[in-house]
Every structure is written in structure tokens, then in C-alpha cells.
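Weekly structure sync, notes
Attendees: PL, DS, HV (note-taker this week)

Item 1: TetR/AcrR family transcriptional regulator
DS walked through the input record. Source organism listed as Dactylosporangium cerinum. Sequence as pasted into the shared doc:
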Amino acid sequence: MPATDLAPRKRPKNRKAQIALVAAELFCERGYHLVGIDEIAAAVGISGPAVYRHFPNKYAILVHATRELVTAALDAAREVPGDDPAGVLDAQLAALARFTVERRKVGALYQWEWRYLAEEHRTEFRADLAGLDARLVAPLRRLRPELSAGGAEFLVRAALSTFGSLTTHRAAAPKARAEATLHRLGWAMLRADAPPAAAIRSARGAAGRAAADAAEPLVPGLESRRELLLAAAIRLFRRLGYHAVGMEDIGAAAGINASSVYRYFPSKGDLLAAAYYRASDRLAASTATALRGATDPGDALRRLVAAYVGFAFGESDLVSVYLAENNNLPEPDRHELRKVQRLHVEEWVRLLTQARADLPATDARVLVHAAINLVTDLGRAVRFTETGGVPAAVAQLALVALHTFPES
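Item 1 (cont.): predicted structure, written out as C-alpha cells:
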């Protein structure tokens, strides 16, 4: 036997980072609560006890993974020295585009899975994301001094939302082409018009009121008990995540005894499915209404965008649940509703390729996902009201995204 076969195998120096990355990919693919330590260990190629040499529990892995993701993003967005703000932003956007493509499989940590962090770690995560925004806001305001601080932040969030869209779908995108497309999308957002400063201040005030309202129990009115339970479940699923909410929590939020909840919904899965079918029905209805009377594909696309903005801002809790909780649906409902989601995206793609005959369907699909994520991401992050010009500005940004030219 060769001497090399007798030598003990060395543990990789980066084992902790390897475990965190593999775990993050599994969390994003299947959801944090559906992944176990043994599954993480098997994917890494080690034993379950070996994981505990590096992390005391699964939650510690989630904390480490989210910290590492934001740290890497902050590093990509570091402001390079120079007097040219356009050059600084170009370098930042290129680095963030490359980072996004490389970390595509773990982007859902930013999109959804961070909800399962404890409040102290959520606060830390939000502060780090604000720091990421600030790194781009500073050179943007030097480049465009007419922008208010809020306006610049709005455009930066829009740019980062188009980047984040790559992590929300599986549409094929060669690495170099995806990076170039994200780079162009980022610039398209940063060059766009921002809402009036007064509108953004108003939206922030509404966001604070909405956050306070989210903590208050629902007040029964004329709604049926079934409607109260569904509304409470949607709100709690959005704020805490499906697995962090129990049927008793939903009953308490709706002002209904826990024992009575099961008379209306046999299980929490049935409640989640009801929320999805409601979202699908309302989205289909708003789409059909918007497209009625359209004069050409371009007009239809503008109507579709406006309708989606109205739907996403008017039903922000429902839309967030609709986008985040696919993996937790009962199996038959999951397949059916994913098909409905794909058909909705394909309707956008069909209209976009009709309006832009030069655009291949593969590129159109990437731009459509960017526009959709832009709308829903801004709606979730800031809870904008439907006044003050903000929805119109978001709709315009979505149209800018749809008309961005990918790398040729």
C-alpha cells in the first residue's frame, strides 16, 4: 500500500465556510425549516456530528450564512478610490453583478429566509443592507446632485432589486451574459427618474404605520370568520414565515378561539393554499381587466405593469406570501400553483417579445423577472402607499427594466 494511503486525511481549512454555503443553498432551495443537520452533512460529505464541531445548531448556520452573504455583498460594493462618480458606480455595479451571478443559489437568504432570524439578528441584517445601499447612494448623489437622499436611495434599491431577481427564477442565463444584463439594468435604474422627495417621505411614514398595524390583532367587523382567519394567516405568514406561525397564533390574531379555527381550515397547509388561490384569482382578474381594450402590445404591456403595481402595493402581504412560501404548500396545490405562476410570467414574456421584435424570449424572460421583482421588492421593503406618485414611478422603472437592452 502506498505511503500516501496511510496518511490521515486533513480537514479542509475552509470547512466552516463550506458547511455554511451548502446549508444556505439547501435553505434557499427547500426552505430553512425543511432542512436538517444530517442533510447538510450529507451534502458536504461529512457526518452529522462533524457539523457540530463548527456550529452549535442549525440556527447558528443560518446566522453565519446571512452574515457572510451581506459581508460579501458589501465587499463587492466597496467604493473604489477616484474622483469620477460614474467610474465608481460602474465598478460597483460590475462587481455586484458578478457577485449576484456567483451567489445565485443563495439569494433567497436575502429575499425570504432571513425572516427566521431572531430580532437581534434581523436588526443587524437590516443595518447591513442599509449600509449596502449607502455605498451606492454616495457616488450616485455626486453624479446626480439634483437627487434627494431619499430619491437616490429609491433608485439604488430599484437597481439592487433587479439584481436580486436573478435569484428568484431558474431561467437559463449564461454567466457572462447574465452579468452584462444585470450591469445594464443597474445603470438603467440609477439613470431613471425618482419620485418627488415629498412622496418618499410620505411613503416612509406610511411604512411606519403599517409596521405598527402589523403587530395589532385584527378587529372583527362584518367579515366572516373564515375571512378573518385568512387575513390573519396572510399577515402572520408574511411577517414571521410559515413555519414560525401556529394555528393558535392565527386564531388569536383573528380573535377566534383556537378550537374553532379547525372548523374553517383543517390544517395550516389548507390556510396557505387558500391564500395562494386567492392571490392567483385576484392577479388573474387584475390582468384580464388591464388587458381589456389594449390597442397594441406596447399599450398592453404598460397596462399590465400598472395593474401589477396596483396589485402588489394594494395586496403587499398576500403578494409576499405568494412569492415566498411555495415550498410549504401541500403537494397537489404546489404543482398547480407553480404552473399558474409560470403562465403569468409567460404572459409578460409574450407581450414583451411582441412589443420588442428584436428581443429573444430567453432575454425577455430575464427582463420580465427583473421588472416583477422590482415591483414586489420595493413594495415589501417600503410598504409604499398608492398616493404621492410613488406607484407611477415604480411602474415607470419596471417599464425601463423591460426596455433595457441585454448584452448583444
